[in-house]
Amino acid sequence: SRKVLMKKYLVIGNPIEHSLSPRLHNYWINQNKIKAIYDKKLIKENEIKNIISQIKTGDITGVNVTVPFKKSVIPYLEKLSPEANASQSVNTIYLEDNKITGHNTDIAGFELSLRYHKYDVKDKKVLILGAGGVAPSIILGLKKMSASQIMLCNRTKSKAENLKKIYDYLDIVNWGDMPEFDMIVNATSVGLKKNEEININFKKSGQNKFYYDVIYNPRETMFLKKAKEQGNIAENGIMMFVYQAHQAFTIWHKVMPKIDEETLKLLTK
Ligand code: ATR
């Protein structure tokens, strides 16, 4: 590969303006005195091919992928990690053995975030709301951590049923139904806009459950606010975000960056 003084990293997506990845990665890059720069780029689907080809030439060293391209980048890659293949979702790209390789660090990010919150999902019943892009990563993470039951419901039922074709251990639940659960995960996009609300019966689900929202901006969705009001534990997706970045950084730079108070402050200011 070509020699470059300043290695270039990118996060691609649409929209991309809100992405906190540049702030976090550049902070860790500086902290570890690495010669690199991490940028964000708003792209259209037809630009994916060109950007990925620049990984092969060494013009770009690593790419993070966010909504809505985590699946659509796959045809341009030469190799997938087992996690990327199982989820058909790629958020981290790099050159390995001269092959453009796609990996999924969202699964580990989700898993490490639960460890951070000290929630042991083993033998727990979990209900996932949503069957969009992030759902496979949540499903695989829960399975790996030995949840006893993984239930899935989605407004458009056919999309939940399609996921069951791949992950046959899923139990599909009708949208609006409220089965018994220990943990519930919001994997829909509802709540990204302030005061947007999912219609769920919080009273019926009881107390002392664990409510997890993949969304971290806004910091407290209505889903989490109401869960707390009813006496439940509630956590947003910020640590999943931090840990997926941590995993990507470690792969790219072969350095494990620090996660401390200052790192977290960086993301909430
Ligand atoms: P995509 O569907 O393209 O993968 P996504 O942002 O990854 O997009 O997923 C959005 C998720 O939020 C989907 O599960 C979607 O449900 P549908 O499949 O029925 O569209 C869910 N979602 C978005 N708006 C919703 C709403 N108002 N009520 C319920 N679910 C909603």
What can be said about this structure in brief?
This protein has 269 residues and is an alpha/beta fold. It is built from 9 helices and 12 strands. 33% of the residues lie in helices and 20% in strands.
List the defining traits of the structure above.
alpha/beta; 269 residues; 20% strand; 12 strands; six-stranded mixed sheet; binds 2'-monophosphoadenosine-5'-diphosphate
Protein topology:
Layout: E1 7-13, H1 21-31, E2 36-42, H2 48-57, E3 62-65, E4 79-80, H3 82-87, E5 92-96, E6 99-103, H4 106-116, E7 125-129, H5 135-144, E8 149-153, H6 157-166, E9 171-172, E10 183-186, E11 210-213, H7 222-229, E12 233-235, H8 238-253, H9 261-268
Parallel strand pairs: 1-2, 1-3, 4-6, 7-8, 7-10, 8-9, 10-11, 11-12
Antiparallel strand pairs: 3-5, 5-6
The protein binds 2'-monophosphoadenosine-5'-diphosphate (ATR).
2'-monophosphoadenosine-5'-diphosphate is lined by residues 68, 130-133, 154-156, 159, 188-190.
Structural class: alpha/beta
Helicity range: 25-40%
List of distinct ligands in this structure: 2'-monophosphoadenosine-5'-diphosphate
Radius of gyration, CA atoms, in whole angstroms? 19 Å
Mean pLDDT: 96
Distance between the termini: 38 Å
Element-by-element helix/strand order: EHEHEEHEEHEHEHEEEHEHH
Shape: globular
Approximate strand percentage:
15-25%
Name the assembly state. single chain
Count of helical stretches? 9
How many β-strands, per DSSP?
Answer: 12
What can be said about the biggest beta sheet? 6 strands, mixed
Uncertain ranges: none
